[in-house]
Write a structure and sequence with these properties.
Layout: H1 15-24, H2 29-39, H3 46-61, E1 66-70, E2 81-85, H4 96-106, H5 113-126, H6 130-141, H7 150-162, H8 170-178, H9 181-191
Antiparallel strand pairs: 1-2
Length: about 210
């Protein structure tokens, strides 16, 4: 078994960077990042750690969906199909707007606005603020500066779009798509590709 790494000497000139690497290997990541912020409140890595802590807290309440394949005979089609499944939350509901506002207040001109928008979109979708969620997600998916967020944003966008299969959601979700041309175009592309959104083709164009 690999020994647990030791925390770097706090007097070392590279201590904030070495401590960042050390904390990233700690099993209890939430406590780990909180401890880092207590030790290095103004280091070059403080904003990145604050984002990681905020994201960890929010994802425990609002976990990302993941693609799950379903095969015949469980699937009604011989070729099977894919659907999105949600992991169960591992923490009680959190005040997501407060967590985001706290980070933004500390770093008003921060460099992780797109990451925060992705978390805010999850919160908006959970609250059924569909116009806000679609606006944030389509903005991320059309932003060439943040390809590292495309996968998570696509999963959130797909889960939100699949709510169209529920008739009770359509009266509020369809108008949100209709008022957002960028989101409609993303939906069209995903529905006409080999994704789980292919199930939405009979509903398109939305009206």
């Amino acid at each position: 078994e690999e020994p647990s790494p030791r925390s770097p000497d706090p007097g070392h000139p590279l201590a904030p960077f070495l401590d960042f690497l050390h904390q990233a290997r700690t099993p209890d990541i939430q406590t780990s990042w909180a401890d880092y912020l207590a030790r290095h409140p103004a280091s070059p890595k403080t904003e990145a750690v604050s984002l990681r802590l905020t994201r960890t807290q929010i994802r425990k309440t609002l976990p990302l969906p993941h693609v799950q394949p379903i095969f015949f005979p469980d699937a009604p089609r011989s070729e099977g199909y894919k659907h999105l499944a949600f992991p169960s939350p591992t923490a009680p509901p959190a005040d997501v707007p407060l967590l985001l506002a706290t980070h933004r207040q500390k770093f008003p001109n921060g460099k992780y606005q797109a990451d925060l928008n992705l978390l805010e979109a999850a919160s908006a979708a959970a609250q059924k603020d569909y116009p806000r969620a679609l606006n944030l997600l389509s903005g991320i998916l059309n932003d060439p500066n943040h390809p590292e967020l495309y996968q998570d944003a696509s999963l959130q966008f797909s889960e939100l779009s699949l709510r169209l299969l529920a008739p009770a959601e359509r009266p509020t979700l369809i108008p949100a798509f209709q008022s957002n041309p960028a989101a409609r175009e993303i939906l069209r592309k995903l529905a006409h590709s080999q994704t789980c959104l292919a199930r939405l083709r009979p509903l398109l164009p939305l009206s």
